[in-house]
Amino acid sequence: MPKTFTQIPLTRPATPLLDMLTSPAELRRLPATRLEQVVDELREYLLYAVGQCGGHFGAGLGVVELTVALHYLYNTPDDRLVWDVGHQCYPHKILTGRREGITSIRQQDGLSGFPKRSESEYDTFGVGHSSTSISAALGMALGAEMAGSDRRAVAIIGDGAMTAGQAFEAMSHAAHTRSNLLVILNDNNMSISHNVGGLSNYFARIWASKSYIALREGGKKVLSTMPAAWDFIRRTEESMKNMVSPDMLFEAIGFNYIGPIDGHNVDELVRTLGNMRALEGPQLLHVYTTKGKGFAPAEADPVGYHAINKIEPKPKVQVAVPSQPKKPKYQDIFGQWLCDMAEQDKRLVGITPAMCEGSGMVEFSQRFPDRFHDVAICEQHAVTLAGGLACENQKPVVAIYSTFLQRGYDQLIHDVALQDLDVTFGLDRAGLVGEDGATHGGVFDLAYLRTVPNMIIAAPSDENECRQLLYSAYQHEGPAAVRYPRGTGPGVAIEKAMEALPIGQARTLRDGQQVAILAFGALTPAAQEAGKALNATVLDMRWVKPLDRDAILQAVASHTLLVTVEDHQRMGGAGSAVNELLHEEGLLVDVLNLALPDHFIHHGKRDVLLAEAGLDAQGIEAQIRTRLSEQQRLREAR
Ligand SMILES: Cc1ncc(C[n+]2csc(CCOP(=O)(O)OP(=O)(O)O)c2C)c(N)n1
Ligand SMILES: CC(=O)[C@@H](O)[C@H](O)COP(=O)(O)O
Ligand SMILES: [Mg+2]
């Protein structure tokens, strides 16, 4: 039985056996009887490490035994372990030479919170978005076959990630190729929220079928003592399964299904995986685990412990600090607006692809359960579902992270925009997201949205504008997106009343001379600060599409330098839209586009990363001053 902890250790626990294991090869030299100790030490060290730096928590705790068993039985890194989503990879990182570095996880220049090929040869596939592991592992299995290698490929996928279509696309193909691929379904009955849908109910039924399990276990205990009897076990399991569940989904697809087994029994995992290693063709092992296993508060509240913040040690002397009113996050502004809007309009339907908490929809889901749809990790379905609802004169609002809407791009074009359907997108986590890094950066949405006919796109500069622009986008009868960042804004007062702001109309924040700064979205306060220092004109553009043409032309007429500011890739973003407009108008004006450069920006604190990209107030001011000096030099040279 694994140990259960009730507190996160704040000092490094003693882990004598773990300390000796600097690579999986050393783990493999241990007798199997020592693995339970490895499991306990690894779990305690993991608790300590995440407490030191914050990060994904429950998922890693749930796969400690599985991680140990896999590295024990498979010849990693030659055999390929592919983790799905990758938020459960911390124990894997600890066992694969990154034990000390793990306390730097998700911090700038520290380890990534996800498997990353450039970080370690044990990280076989870069990940962060879900449901890619089976496709990638199948590719590796096929690649090994082509190279005449007998290396194995294993995909470890959660029950949440398994709800996405891509997982089934890959399984269907694997069944066709008959490759030697092992898929481990790590079923903890949880996504970030409680897992939902028919598939999740199906998994729960399998697990709950106690009689089946008892029957199966009874049979296996006897038979597994005889290695040669493995074939017989399989045949026996086959008939037992048929007695209970004649329509085994995975068997029907073409996988050999084994399980469910207890994912916290390291001996059982080693025994079963050891037997399965030799099997040919696509295999699926169904493992049942508990999210947050071994840490009692996380087991009791797996949603709350999906990820945690760094644990700050209590100061020895408590100084009374007057409490500041807490600023709402943008996700909360969205959630409050959604509830208020739903009260006014019975046709409003809220949709989330498995991000209810992160998207600020908990209150909405409780107050309007009939109009709330968590569709599981199915972004494509979320978008087309909204299209269908709009056809029936309902008013769907899709709350979706910018990075995850990338998954639903064809649906956005083909199923929504092309038919000019009335769908509102609450596009959360737009811009750099910080600690999750490049996999989650919401830095492409303007480029991929503004090229789509019929779309309108708003970029609020503060919390109140976010509420008002959500209202405006919702009133618009056609596809509309409002993009807002992760975390909090400047902290302006939020008006309860909702007012539709004119579409495509900017507002002037300050009048100045020589320089006009066109600010798009969350960086507007920084642009405003820079504008003040430079005595520049500053416009809060509010809309990326349509642009406020008149305001831009007026700015061109009365300034010598136009500056665009946005937290998005420079290429294809709001600045590009302004450049295109000026080109169409045949206007020659000096334009400075301040935005993110053409490379991926990895993990770190959002503020620091923005400053490094020259997108804080000082950076904006400095770049403008440099350009003004260049202008001056050119004038003097003429
Ligand atoms: C395409 C995509 N959509 C949403 C997410 C956000 N997300 C990260 S983990 C997760 C839940 C995954 O559940 P599961 O695979 O069962 O893993 P568990 O956390 O239960 O271990 C979700 C929805 C994501 N990473 N990728
Ligand atoms: C792994 C994953 O995709 C999510 O857990 C993500 O890290 C959540 O991000 P937020 O913390 O911004 O909600
Ligand atoms: Mg799960």
Automatic annotation (TrEMBL):
<dbReference type="Pfam" id="PF02779">
    <property type="entry name" value="Transket_pyr"/>
</dbReference>
<keyword id="KW-0414">Isoprene biosynthesis</keyword>
<feature type="binding site">
    <location>
        <begin position="160"/>
        <end position="161"/>
    </location>
    <ligand>
        <name>thiamine diphosphate</name>
    </ligand>
</feature>
<dbReference type="InterPro" id="IPR029061">
    <property type="entry name" value="THDP-binding"/>
</dbReference>
<comment type="similarity">
    <text>Belongs to the transketolase family. DXPS subfamily.</text>
</comment>
<keyword id="KW-0784">Thiamine biosynthesis</keyword>
<dbReference type="InterPro" id="IPR009014">
    <property type="entry name" value="Transketo_C/PFOR_II"/>
</dbReference>
<keyword id="KW-0808">Transferase</keyword>
<feature type="binding site">
    <location>
        <position position="188"/>
    </location>
    <ligand>
        <name>Mg(2+)</name>
    </ligand>
</feature>
<feature type="domain" description="Transketolase-like pyrimidine-binding">
    <location>
        <begin position="328"/>
        <end position="492"/>
    </location>
</feature>
<feature type="binding site">
    <location>
        <position position="87"/>
    </location>
    <ligand>
        <name>thiamine diphosphate</name>
    </ligand>
</feature>
<keyword id="KW-0479">Metal-binding</keyword>
<comment type="pathway">
    <text>Metabolic intermediate biosynthesis; 1-deoxy-D-xylulose 5-phosphate biosynthesis; 1-deoxy-D-xylulose 5-phosphate from D-glyceraldehyde 3-phosphate and pyruvate: step 1/1.</text>
</comment>
<feature type="binding site">
    <location>
        <position position="295"/>
    </location>
    <ligand>
        <name>thiamine diphosphate</name>
    </ligand>
</feature>
<comment type="function">
    <text>Catalyzes the acyloin condensation reaction between C atoms 2 and 3 of pyruvate and glyceraldehyde 3-phosphate to yield 1-deoxy-D-xylulose-5-phosphate (DXP).</text>
</comment>
<dbReference type="InterPro" id="IPR005475">
    <property type="entry name" value="Transketolase-like_Pyr-bd"/>
</dbReference>
<feature type="binding site">
    <location>
        <begin position="128"/>
        <end position="130"/>
    </location>
    <ligand>
        <name>thiamine diphosphate</name>
    </ligand>
</feature>
<dbReference type="Pfam" id="PF13292">
    <property type="entry name" value="DXP_synthase_N"/>
</dbReference>
<dbReference type="Pfam" id="PF02780">
    <property type="entry name" value="Transketolase_C"/>
</dbReference>
<keyword id="KW-0786">Thiamine pyrophosphate</keyword>
<dbReference type="InterPro" id="IPR033248">
    <property type="entry name" value="Transketolase_C"/>
</dbReference>
<comment type="subunit">
    <text>Homodimer.</text>
</comment>
<feature type="binding site">
    <location>
        <position position="159"/>
    </location>
    <ligand>
        <name>Mg(2+)</name>
    </ligand>
</feature>
<dbReference type="InterPro" id="IPR005477">
    <property type="entry name" value="Dxylulose-5-P_synthase"/>
</dbReference>
<protein>
    <recommendedName>
        <fullName>1-deoxy-D-xylulose-5-phosphate synthase</fullName>
        <ecNumber>2.2.1.7</ecNumber>
    </recommendedName>
</protein>
<keyword id="KW-0460">Magnesium</keyword>
<feature type="binding site">
    <location>
        <position position="379"/>
    </location>
    <ligand>
        <name>thiamine diphosphate</name>
    </ligand>
</feature>
<feature type="binding site">
    <location>
        <position position="188"/>
    </location>
    <ligand>
        <name>thiamine diphosphate</name>
    </ligand>
</feature>
<dbReference type="InterPro" id="IPR020826">
    <property type="entry name" value="Transketolase_BS"/>
</dbReference>
